[in-house]
Amino acid sequence: MIKVHLKIQRYNPEKDSKPYFKDYAVECEPTDRVLDALLAIKGTLDGSLTLRKSCGHGVCGSDGMRINGRNMLACKVLIKNVSQPIVVEPLKGFKIVKDLVVDMKQFFEKYVAVKPYLINQETSPEKERLQSQKQQERFEDTTKCILCACCTTACPSFWSDPNYAGPASIVQAHRFIFDSRDQGGEERLNLLNQKEGVWRCRTIFNCVEACPRDINITKAIGEIKKDLLFKKI
Amino acid sequence: MLDFSPSLLFSPSDLMIKIHQFEAIVVGGGGAGLYAALALSQAKVQTAVLSKLYPTRSHTGAAQGGIGAALANKEEDRPEWHMFDTVKGSDYLADQDAVEILCKEAVTTVYELEHLGLPFNRTQDGRIDQRRFGGHTKEFGKGPVQRACFAADRTGHMILQTLYQQCIKNEVKFFDEFHVVDLIIEEQICRGVIAYSIETGELHIFHAKAVLFATGGSGRMFKITSNAHALTGDGMAIALRNKIPLEDMEFFQFHPTGIYKMGILLTEACRGEGGILRNKNGERFMERYAPNIKDLAPRDIVSRCIYLEVRDGRGIDGKDYVHLDLTHLGKEVIEKKLPDITDFVRTYMGLDPVKDLIPIQPTAHYSMGGIPTNVNAEVVWDEKNSVLKGFYAAGECACVSVHGGNRLGTNSLVDILVFGRRAGLSMAEYCKKTEFSPLPSNPQTKIQAQIEQFKSKSNGEKISTLRQELQETMMDLVGVFRTEAGLKKAQEKVRELKKRFQNISLSDKSQVFNSELLDALELGNLITLSLVTIASALAREESRGAHYREDYPKRNDQNWLKHTLATLSEIGVELKYKNVVIKNFQPQERKY
User: Are B229 and A56 a contacting pair, CB within 8 Å?
Assistant: First the structure.
């Protein structure tokens, strides 16, 4: 066990006029997750510390936050791999609900806006539709997205223009546009061709760096841009 | 879209309670809940899904390996073989009528998921790819078969995403971060639920014709678990408090391959793809215990074998773990077919499965027991399977029972899909022929008082202290090996925790996003379920499936080929029993 020092941004809308930082020190193993340290604080020092969490191993997307200035999942970074004091803040660019919890409504509205579901009007065959391994691999990378919002809230284009669709929703659109079974590509490309679509992306690569699922987001956005430039649309 | 604006009602304490009305309420946004919601929305039934998380955070998303379905895309396979494996895997406690539905509908359900867009891995000829999994065999046990349909090692993630996407497409109404705290049942008819809005701290009443609980498992009662923090058995505990029994709660599955100390799951597909378990001598010890299918024996058996190896001094470095060896599979198979677990091993252990052995230990994984239902997901509340009108359950919180004493790998996904869908269909039928039953006055009074009590106390015990003691007790005494003395000790301890629970206090008194209040409610649920689990385990004086009693090491069909039904009353846990449905497969000795 070692003493771990954290500096956490706190904000309770019922009491505080604005967010402030508070220092904490807890006993943890160096191989524990930052999430474990936060929960140790909540469990032993201050039960009012508020954060979202669920799976604890990087697949549900609940605990995206800024850790030492970078967006990550608190359950996917080990204490020994970050410098102390560990500075923990909520994701940037969303309204803060309380402490590390941000308002995700707008994020999910943008997700819904890109029609994130398979569009195919044909009658389904009795068994599965055929798809080659190559066709499946074409969009596999973007199927990994867990909607944690780490990418969107790391994007300077989003910070300066909150109406920008943002990398996460573009990733979702990519997952369907390049699926050989989908017929809604054109609708989605038209949506992303608008002012707040893919052209707001300035290929800064913050999203790629932030993605806990290692999705090559900037490449995916680039493929959509390329489609818009060279296809009939 | 059909959305009733909430009406307002004044409760005695003059707090405004919002009332919503939907024909169908689905509680839980995992695979079972979303498939039900999808089926309901397709049938044009006004439906709302309530989840204490955002639905995409549900634990279905953590399922890795695959969905068992006899598509026969890689080799000959039949639903009958899948049925046999499931029944044998259950140690003959599964109800065979339900298993038949499970295995037959698995096939059509997988095709339907593909039609809904699920990005399955593909075979050379473009069909859904399949691989081996524990306990799945051909020709009634002759050898392993490739039955698990998969999307890399994130099959659950893809199911959850696909079903959520389709619900969005069908404009299902979602109430995210609404924690359901009670059922409204009057005169044996379910009339809705009471939910706590986490963001605002308000109570909401959802008036409904039909309510589905698809609230998942309760793995957080154990210290080492693969389960998400959210898996605190809320639905099961609420059912118990409403006098509904829980079935077969003594059967809790420990998955053999959890990351050492952390419990994070490493899919059985690791062994399905050819991975093997080794003790400190490097020996492939499963050969000794299950000479035929070796490392692909069912989970209850492999978990016990790991404990036995450790107990006999063959754990690594004398400690309580063994090694999972994937090094012979090669970089390509590992990175292509098991990319997520490769990432986990690298992230959490700093090891590379391509060249390093992975330290693993059994991890609390799955509740075979749950709210008793029939094959249409209707909740049944007694030994005669009498239906409780308007109340449904599906997925891990339910017990149909298709898993009996031990669930086979992949069958949890088959269960949530097949019975989640069936729940939606039977609820739709019920809603169409039924009117709303009136709400009783102020159904929220009890839960409101409890919340006030939590918030008013100060200087009491901490939630985390009690939770830790509970998890350690359950892990040590109610885990893979059990004895009468150990279970009695656990019972005493958990009863003590139940008393101390009355004296907990919160440091967070706020209304907005009071997650500490949620922790308190969840801990209460875990304590309740632990008591029921212990009582059921203590009574069952035999060993079957995941329930292993060192003092009664043999299965005893004469006395114990029956389901436990545990109810909670003032005096404690009461136990009754009901018959197992046996059709084609007569109980026989279980060898692999």
Answer: yes
β pairing state of A101-102 and A96-98: antiparallel
Q: Are B100 and A105 in contact (CB under 8 A)?
A: no
Domains and CATH numbers, chain A: 2-102 (3.10.20.30), 105-231 (1.10.1060.10)
CA B156 to chain centre: 13
Q: Could you tell me if residue A81 is left (phi over 0), alpha (psi between -120 and 50 degrees) or otherwise beta?
A: alpha
- Whole-angstrom Cα distance, residue B425 to residue B420? 9
Instruction: Quickly state the pLDDT bin for B7 (edges 50, 70, 90).
Output: low
Q: From CA A48, how far away is CA A71, in angstroms rounded?
A: 23
* Token pair listed for B515: 């997650």
CB-CB neighbors (< 8 A) of A51 in chain B = 515
Indicate if ipTM > 0.85: yes
The alpha-carbon gap from B112 to the nearest alpha carbon of chain A, in Å, equals 8
- Catalytic residue at B495? no
Which residue among B71, B162, B513 sits closest to A50, beta carbon to beta carbon? Answer: B513
| Bridge partner residues of B8 (DSSP) | B18
Q: Touching check for A180 and chain B: CB below 8 Å?
A: no
Contact B53 A133 (CB under 8 A): no
Q: Where are the alpha helices (DSSP H) in A43-132?
A: 105-113
- Interface membership of A193 toward B (CB under 8 Å): no
B257-278 burial: b if 16+ Cβ within 10 Å, else e: bbbbbbbbbbbbbbbbbbbbbb
> Hey, what are B304's tokens?
């016990």
∠ CA(B55), CA(B57), CA(B61), 5° rounding? Answer: 100
Stretches where chain A sits below pLDDT 70 are 232-233
Q: B464 touching A, CB under 8 A? A: yes
Please check whether residue B528 is in contact with residue B508, taking contact to mean a CB–CB distance below 8 angstroms. Answer: no
Contacts with B507 (C-beta within 8 Å, 6 or more apart), sequence order = A46, A47, A48, B516
B559: which 2 tokens? 């006395």
Cβ contact A59–B340 (<8 Å) = yes
What are the C-alpha distances in Å from B435 to residues B23, B191, B377, B391, B439? 9, 11, 20, 14, 12
| CA A126 and chain centroid, separation | 37
Are B357 and B324 in contact by the 8 Å Cβ rule? The answer is yes
Answer yes or no: are the C-beta atoms of B4 and B173 closer than 8 Å. Answer: no
Cβ distance B520 to B504 under 8 Å? yes
pLDDT for B17 equals: 87
Q: Count CB-CB contacts under 10 A for residue B352.
A: 15
- Could you tell me if B264 and B59 are in contact, meaning their C-beta atoms sit under 8 angstroms apart? no
Task: Tell me which of B299, B407, B544, B590 is the catalytic residue.
Answer: B299
**Alpha-carbon gap, residue B156 to B147, rounded angstroms:** 16
Tens-place pLDDT, residues A214-224? 999 999 999 99
For residue B239, give the H/E element and its range: helix B234-241
Note the pLDDT tens digit of each residue in A22-79. 999 999 999 999 999 999 999 999 999 999 999 999 999 999 999 999 999 999 999 9
Could you tell me which chain A residue has the CA closest to the CA of B56?
Answer: A60
**B contact residues 279-338, partner A, Cβ 8 Å cutoff:** none
- The chain B residue lying nearest A56, using CA atoms, is B228
Whether A67 and A82 have beta carbons less than 8 Å apart is answered as yes
- Strands B322-325, B358-367: pairing is antiparallel
Nearest chain A CA: its distance from B158 CA (Å): 8
Q: How far apart are CA B190 and CA B567, in angstroms?
A: 18
The answer to whether B114 contacts chain A (CB < 8 Å) is yes
Per the CB < 8 Å rule, is A55 touching B59?
Answer: yes
| A contacts of B121 (beta carbons < 8 Å) | 133, 136
Chain A residues closer than 8 Å to B507 by CB: 46-48
Cβ atoms of A58 and A212 within 8 Å: the answer is yes
